[in-house]
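User: For a reading group we're discussing how well predicted structures match intuition. Take Transporter, SSS family. Before you show the prediction, I'll give you the sequence so everyone sees exactly what went in.
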Amino acid sequence: MGEDVVSVFQSANLILIFLGLFVLVILYMGVRYSGKVEESDDLVLAGRGLSLPFLVPSILATWICAGAMMGAAGEAYTGGLQAVVWDPFAPVMMMLIVGVFFAHRLRRSGYTTVIDFMNDRFGKRMGMLYLVVQMLSAIGWLGGQLVALGVIVYLTTGFSMMTAILIAAIVMIVVSYIGGLWALSRVDAIVLVLIIVGLLIMLPIVIGELGGWDVFFAEGDNWLEVPTFAITPVAADDGGFLWYTGFLGLAYYLSAWAALGLGDVPSQVILQRVLAAKDEKVARQGFIISGVMYLFIGLIPVAIGIAMYTWGLDLPLDKVEMVLPWVADNFLPPWASVLFVVSLAGAIISTVGNTCLICATMAGHNLFKYFKPDATPKEELRMVRLAIPVTMFMALVIALYFETVYKLIVFSGALQLCTIFAPFVLGFFWKKANAKGAITSFFTGLISWVVFFFMIFPYTKESNFEEEIIEAGLAMDWAIWDALYMSMVPAAILAFVVMIVVSLKTQQSDPPKVFTDSKGNPMTDGMFSWSK
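Assistant: Thanks. Here is the predicted 3D structure of Transporter, SSS family, as structure tokens, for the group to look at:
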């Protein structure tokens, strides 16, 4: 895979040595913080004690991963800024939305997972539906990270891809099992420093090879030949939005913002950090600061992708995610390439650990309590730990079948947008939202997404069946993903409308439950009810 794009680095042995040292540091963190874990909240929420210096890296580590790094560079190479609205721009919006509207409320609730909120607000049936969506999204995300890690290690060192994946999986099982979020948050802080340093070394070298920032902004180009620095749709003759125009162009543009910008707002992967924050103020500030930081960090690989296409790098369409490894191999001095590969692998490993723990939390805390409501904290801890290797095994299976990292990550947000976004938002901010409305909305969004997909797919198929795309073997792949994205926007809108209508029609047969904080105080009292 990719031998013609990136060759084994001359510093391969050094990379493997430092990756081995990094693994030892991770294991040390697990052992060091194992003494802090006495019950499930200690393992999965760090005892609700994450301060700002550790909360921000923990949030960012969820996103500075395969999609933000390799995927975004490749997408920018392909379509400039229009192609990366999905990531990094949309996640920045998501973090700011969570920080402003949701963080203080959710932290004040005292829940262990967002499933607890769904159970209390809409009943256990809705809670189970939410759990299913979250598990599918998170395990799919986790599988994508494992694919990226294996590819990076294999291409840069020649080390077996499957062996690298297995070693990383075993290490993160051990650390998550014994040290939980206490240990992982410390690993996240180390990784964040490494990845920022690595990117800041790479960017000026790439821009220097191109001829400077003046050349970058004056001549910046991309494979699709749309306006490189346009983030919004342009005139039809200039490319619309990634060469879609009219209704399809508008739907595609809205989906680019909505898939992760709105779809990941109710994500357990994100909101577990809210629940782990030291207090409401730290939760709110952590997400706002993370959003600002992610914008600047995420734009670096985007700039590198654009610069490398402009420079003349000719990658096969199915290998564009290899932009960053190619740069590290060909432009960086050996010591810098070692640092970058280790930091990139470290970021992915960190995301693997965090996501695995979150999946295990949902299975061990919520699924177990569904069958044993009177479970003690000690029993919950035991079940969460048991769920950690099971979750990782499921992700390994997915990793064998999916290799498109960026799209796999974005798909998880799209699934959530169509099914649980409306119940989550209205459950927070509308007193009349009830269980019948939430469940009807869930299935309306899911079914209509499928219906709209089959309506839109013939048009995306026609648009993508061009000679170069067909030769790259991507025509059907692009047509399917484009249709999935476009169809989620009308599906999400319909889900919202249905929930409002059904809730209003069933107020007497299904009286709404009040959303309260940990002290029993109602919190569904307006969108800007800030905590004191």
